[in-house]
Amino acid sequence: MYMVESKAAFTLGEFGDARPNFIYQLTELKDNWPSVLFAMAGGVVLSIGNLATQYAWAFVGLSVTEVICSSITVVIGSTFNYFLDDKINKAEILFPGIACFLVAVGLGSAVHSSNAADNRAKLNNLSSDSKPGTRATFIPTSSETLPENGIKDPEVGNDTVVKAKAGTAGFLVEIENRRSIKVFGKSILIGLAITFFAGVCFSLFSPAFNLATNDQWHALKKGVPHLIVYTAFFYFSVSGFVIALILNIRFLFSPILDTHRSSFKAYLNDWNGRGWALLAGLLCGFGNGLQFMGGQAAGYAAADAVQALPLVSTFWGILLFGEYRKSSRRTYILLVSMLSMFIVAVAVLMASAGHRK
């Protein structure tokens, strides 16, 4: 993510003959430091929010985590941006959309609670849910790519461990055994608290970037040019990279939530899933840049429409990762209601877009 954002600043920030450009503004830190601090604060809260989200996924699931985080981001962040942008968005459309996001937050919490109850019921009936000869056991990393008909269990010799079907108790146990963050037996409030914390962090990075590029609080001295998007983007990405590095090293040696302590050697040797992580960082960097460019043109409140990302993550979570398979009718009703409300909210938010003068 840092590499993408820095590359964008050094290339796009130099296009055109307008002054000040990116390189020029890097040399004017003594004058524009208040805006630089706002941009860096945005990078810090985004990085913390990203880290918190990765813990929330284990507790709450991909679909609900993204809906709640994105909705909180809009409820708080878009409200701030509306007033920071001198109300260029259509208030009669924007605030009903924000209300829809708020309803989506409540529905998301209800989905998580209902699904947790479904999972407890499945685990209480684990023996009747499993087929004869199937055991819920730890599956090593190297065996995840083996055929669907089963793998060899090293503890019992030639016995075959059949992979459990999505939505069954055995499937839940397999996931719990594979992941480092253990959630069985923990309160559902832990997951919701982490999710809400991540959402609050995400809600602050866009207003901070808005302040960095438009100086609505008049922190700059008279005559000092505002930061262009690309300069603010560079400082934003530098601070995000630094805080992510610090926190990840900290949690590597002093983990939280009962995860295992690791080391640099183990980290460097473990490339399982690293390619997906790098791809996620690249996409995040591109997405941030496009959001900020759109916000500078049409208002940062409307640019928060990028929070439509849960519509994609829901596809991943439900169709590819098996979330909510074999859940109760109540959970399905709440899930559909949450997604429907979220779709309406995103559409209304996009319709509120204005034009910066």
Total beta-strand segments:
2
Q: Give the biggest beta sheet.
A: 2 strands, antiparallel
> Radius of gyration from the CA trace?
23 Å
Enumerate the strands of the largest sheet in spatial order, edge to edge or round the barrel.
1-2
- Sequence of secondary-structure elements: HHHHHHEEHHHHHHHH
* Uncertain residue segments: 128-160
Distance between the termini: 31 Å
User: How many helices does DSSP assign?
Assistant: 14
Beta content comes to under 5%
Task: State the helicity in percent bands.
Answer: 55-70%
Structural class: mainly alpha
Shape: globular
Mean pLDDT, nearest integer? Answer: 80
Sum this structure up briefly.
With 357 residues, the chain is an all-alpha fold. It has helices at residues 2-12, 22-26, 29-60, 62-84, 91-124, 126-129, 169-178, 188-214, 229-253, 264-269, 274-298, 300-303, 310-320, 329-351, and strands at residues 151-152, 160-161. The protein has a two-stranded antiparallel sheet.
